Amino acid sequence: SKAIFEDIVQLEPFEQIFLKQDSKMHFISLGIALEMMDPEFRRQVYAMEPRIRKIIETQVRQMSWMTLRTPQGKLKLKFALLGRINQIFPKVAIRHIYFTNFIMQ
Question: Which residues pair with 31 in a beta bridge?
Answer without folding.
Answer: 101
